[in-house]
Amino acid sequence: MKERRFAVAPLAAGLLAGALLAPIAATAATLTIATVNNPDMLVMQKLSPAFTKETGIKLNWVVLPENTLRQRVTTDIATHAGSFDIVTIGTYEAPLWAKNHWLDPVGNLGAAYDLADIFPSVRAGLSYNRTLYAVPFYAESSMTYYRKDLFKAAGLTMPAHPTYDEIKTFADKLTDPAKGIYGVCLRGLPGWGENMAYLTTLVNTFGGEWFNMKWEPQLTSPAWEKAITFYVDLMKKDGPPNATSNGFTENLALFSTGKCGMWIDATVAAGYLYDPAKSKVAADVAVAPAPTDVTPHGAHWLWSWALAIPVSSRQAVDARKFLAWATSKSYIGLVGRTQGWVAVPPGTRESTYKNPEYLKAAPFAPLVEQMILSADPLHPTMNPVPYTGVQFVGIPEFQGIGTTVGQDIAAALAGRETVAQALQSAEASTRRTMTEAGYIK
């Protein structure tokens, strides 16, 4: 094709030359951030105009439910679509995606950032080959929330270290459908990071594991059958209706509005439940460690929601500025001053747990710190296993496996299958995936 040439009139040429020589007005960058619709992230979005005012960098927020976020972000980053400059990921994705060269390293955020202040186990979970690929917005373990007023009225006392048998006994006595109170609320929404996050800890403490040392699935083992039968029976008798629709967010709403006697879930919920501006039960909530059964191994999880920069982002320099701002000591102070100290992002920094203002506002803080520091992703089960991760298995295939198994168990909870049928289906699909992926010869 011939090159087309256009004549430029002298006046137009002069104007063009002047335009080329004139200063070009700076255009503020706009970062697109994908995050989950958890309360702490909504606070981050609410306070983010302070970042824009400080830097001139604008922010475009994409806030999604947990399962939807994972699907959107995984697809985008795996295809290098470049839709997002910053993504909210977790302890599961960070090392796997770093290994695939999908993330930029984020270790150098300036001396004022004080990276050493972040709990070592949290940093380790977001690293690959000792290089940090995501910075934690908040970190969590899991524990038991319960209503002090309901326990007192029923003549019950929560032990310092509850067992699942005790939880069942308490739930039976607390359930009062006439008053709209359910003895216990637990995740039922299918998803590897929804119902299976909780259920994997349940299986762990009942003595089970996802795979043996030969990577053979163990989902029809006695431990799995006992754990899932316990869960289904408990939820059918003492849980809320339509439990298969309830993930973290839905159960948080149920508990905070007075519908649950107990709830076993993420420690991050404590800041919300103890806040009288957000929770109707703030004066009556108390906490205890996650329950155990035959072993303490893997009874409580370790997770971090973290911010990372995809290699496909074209604005990595500005994205790094936001990461440094949103996960800093200064941001924690900003939340404390504007939203109340009980609402600060928990579980990430040692300095938070030495702050007198936070400790005064958050009576749950010592237990949260204990749960986070005692969770052991390297030894998550009673029997030896070839994987790491407490409430997940640290292999790429687990995202699909966990979601499929979660759907099978949700079917049992909904009464569409027996527990045995659900676990047989889960075992078969998991074995097929592991065989196709080359784990099983």
Please explain how this structure is put together.
By secondary structure, the chain is of the alpha+beta class. The protein folds into 2 domains: 30-140 and 302-362, 3-Layer(aba) Sandwich (D-Maltodextrin-Binding Protein, domain 2); 142-300 and 383-436, D-Maltodextrin-Binding Protein, domain 2, CATH 3.40.190. Helix content is 42%, strand content 12%.
Short synopsis of the structure:
Helices cover 42% and strands 12% of the residues. With 441 residues, it is of the alpha+beta class.
Which terms would index this structure?
disordered N terminus; D-Maltodextrin-Binding Protein, domain 2; single chain; 10 strands; 441 residues
Protein topology:
Blueprint: H1 10-21, E1 30-36, H2 39-47, H3 49-55, E2 58-64, H4 66-78, E3 86-90, H5 93-99, H6 120-125, E4 127-128, E5 131-132, E6 135-140, E7 142-147, H7 148-153, H8 164-174, H9 195-205, H10 222-238, H11 248-256, E8 262-266, H12 270-273, E9 285-289, E10 303-308, H13 316-326, H14 329-339, H15 356-361, H16 365-374, H17 398-413, H18 419-436
Helix pairs in contact: 17-18
